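Structure first, sequence second, as always.
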């Protein structure tokens, strides 16, 4: 069926919590508009003045409705707005929405190809048949093969049919995502196929039927690279990691992103602008595997990454016995570095100046600061005036955890921080190159500690600091997604690399020493702990992402430790399940029908057998796995 003069109506469903129309939407609509006669945008909720202005440059038909019924009722109301008589004059009705990025390839290529096929309705991608209904809303009791509702095209033969009109007239109100799937997306294709209407999809994935249920989400690179799929899902960049690793090793989004970035002309800034503004940083980091493990034995483009950039090292030193230790790591910085060291007495200042005389750098300056606010105030008050003059800054400090015995526990925490920010000159040069190659990267820090008494940090990253951090975010007027159930990608040892303009909101705030607690201060939940956790959210607010950073030499240690910890938990979990390992541990343990009798006692016995005593004493939160 050849559609003459692009006689198509597009009904585009748009939703944004804040009513902001990002540029990815404009790119999507600008391209598809070339293949449409008319375009109607139906917006659920609200629309900013700027957003409406953007849309009106593309179409004079913009409808803003209450945020109810999800995309299904937006389509229904959109068709009612156009009117049945007018609707039937179009050769095709295109129902599509803002859950997709694209196009990678011009939509015209797709429309030209589908014009050649004798069909009543079609789409771009399909979801393969599943023998079960994971949503609990599909009337068939299973998930039939179906066109995905982010893009469905209905031709005139079906538009005019009684069956099509009845389908929409009898549409139930949609009150949840699960109902949107069960009452529309999962049944639309089968409903009309059973009535004798012919359908197909542009991206043929029949050969993947037994391979993957959701090719668009689980195999996006295959579709985009090898099957000319013009679109990709926004959800790829923040989808729950549990679902990814229940199907794959979690590689799909990173592979897709690298292909789009390096092999297409699609501007990846359109992706970052949207997902950083609208989603939680933990989900983004997990979906995109935002971990940088860099070489300590060789440098990529040695000395080129930093030669034209302004680099600084800011180091706070309070303990005299750690001056030489800090100097050792500071010597990893390149020759063009400006080094700033803060301390609190004239005597310490003289000792530091003498020790750091041997450094081969552009300059060394020791700054006297007040003994209030520790390393946090050293950075934000003592060094505020010049931070934004630099392209990249490393921040470190002498870390001594005196409240834990034996002291080696705290020393290992300091070791983990220093090794993963200032291991050696190769590592530092690779860090600078990584910033250069990833312009939306804002802050990199070592992963949280997980040894000895620090073990419960995993799963308790917020500790009792969430509310304080939210209050600080409000004070800084940050617009970010914060969730007490999702860990901040924060430098919990307060050592990190950052792009100063990514922390501009925090740096520009008028901090005073009086804002911080007096010494001695051994309390959790203070402004110091809130700032420690706010760093990555400031970067996100400024349009940059946070990531974890490790030296390859330390990554060997981290992998060993994490594997041991996970294996230990698995062993006891399977034992409590009667030795049945088929359940796995990737799903939410709290939802499994496990026998709870004596489970706490069994867990205590297992902990004594497999875990160090210092860990046992701090592992109360693990009870939540079985409660």
């Amino acid at each position: 069926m050849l559609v003459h003069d692009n006689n198509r109506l597009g009904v585009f469903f748009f939703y944004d919590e804040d009513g902001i129309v990002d540029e990815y939407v404009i790119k999507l609509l600008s391209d598809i508009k070339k293949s449409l006669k008319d375009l109607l945008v139906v917006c659920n909720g609200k629309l900013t003045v700027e957003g409406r202005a953007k849309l009106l440059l593309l179409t004079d038909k913009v409808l803003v409705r209450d945020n109810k019924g999800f995309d299904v009722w937006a389509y229904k109301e959109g068709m009612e707005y156009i009117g049945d008589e007018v609707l039937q004059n179009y050769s095709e009705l295109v129902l599509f929405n803002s859950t997709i990025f694209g196009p990678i390839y011009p939509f015209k290529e797709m429309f030209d190809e589908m014009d050649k096929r004798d069909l009543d309705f079609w789409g771009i991608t399909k979801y393969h048949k599943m023998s079960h209904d994971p949503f609990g809303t599909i009337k068939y009791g299973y998930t039939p093969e179906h066109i995905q509702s982010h893009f469905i095209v209905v031709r005139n033969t079906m538009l005019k049919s009684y069956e099509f009109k009845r389908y929409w007239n009898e549409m139930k109100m949609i009150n949840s995502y699960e109902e949107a799937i069960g009452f529309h997306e999962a049944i639309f294709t089968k409903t009309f196929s059973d009535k004798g209407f012919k359908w197909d999809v542009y991206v043929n994935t029949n050969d993947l039927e037994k391979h993957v249920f959701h090719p668009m989400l689980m195999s996006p690179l295959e579709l985009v690279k090898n099957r000319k799929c013009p679109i990709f899902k926004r959800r790829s960049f923040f989808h729950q990691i549990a679902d990814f690793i229940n199907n794959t090793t979690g590689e799909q989004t990173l592979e897709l992103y690298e292909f789009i970035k390096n092999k297409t002309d699609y501007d990846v800034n359109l992706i970052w602008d949207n997902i950083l503004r609208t989603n939680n940083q933990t989900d983004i980091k997990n979906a995109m595997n935002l971990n940088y493990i860099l070489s300590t034995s060789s440098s990529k483009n040695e000395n080129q990454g930093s030669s034209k950039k302004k680099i600084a090292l800011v180091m706070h030193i309070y303990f005299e016995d750690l001056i030489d230790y800090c100097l050792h790591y500071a010597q990893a910085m390149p020759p063009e570095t400006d080094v700033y060291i803060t301390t609190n007495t004239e005597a310490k200042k003289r000792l530091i100046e003498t020790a750091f005389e041997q450094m081969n750098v552009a300059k060394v300056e020791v700054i006297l600061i007040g003994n209030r606010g520790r390393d946090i105030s050293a950075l934000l008050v003592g060094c505020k005036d010049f931070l934004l003059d630099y392209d990249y800054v490393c921040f470190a400090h002498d870390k001594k955890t005196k409240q834990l015995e034996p002291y080696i526990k705290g020393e290992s925490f300091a070791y983990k921080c220093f090794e993963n920010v200032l291991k050696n000159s190769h590592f530092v040069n690779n860090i600078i190159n990584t910033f250069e190659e990833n312009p939306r990267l804002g802050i990199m820090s070592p992963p949280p500690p997980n040894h000895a008494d620090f073990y419960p940090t995993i799963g308790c990253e917020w500790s009792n600091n969430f509310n304080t951090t939210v209050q600080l975010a409000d004070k800084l007027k940050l617009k970010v997604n914060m969730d007490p159930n999702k860990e901040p990608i924060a430098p919990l040892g307060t050592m990190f690399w950052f792009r100063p303009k990514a922390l501009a909101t925090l740096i520009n705030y008028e901090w005073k020493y009086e804002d911080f607690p007096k010494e001695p201060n051994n309390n959790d939940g203070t402004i110091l702990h809130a700032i420690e956790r706010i760093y990555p959210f400031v970067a996100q607010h400024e349009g940059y992402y946070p990531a974890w950073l490790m030296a390859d030499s330390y990554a060997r240690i981290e992998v060993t430790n994490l594997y041991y910890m996970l294996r230990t938990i698995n062993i006891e979990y399977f034992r409590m399940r009667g030795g049945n390992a088929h359940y796995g541990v990737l799903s939410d343990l709290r939802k499994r029908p496990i026998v709870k009798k004596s489970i706490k006692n069994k867990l205590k016995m297992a902990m004594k057998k497999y875990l160090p005593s210092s860990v046992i004493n701090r592992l109360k939160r693990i009870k939540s796995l079985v409660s």
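Margin note: Residues 239 and 316 are 39 Å apart (CA to CA).
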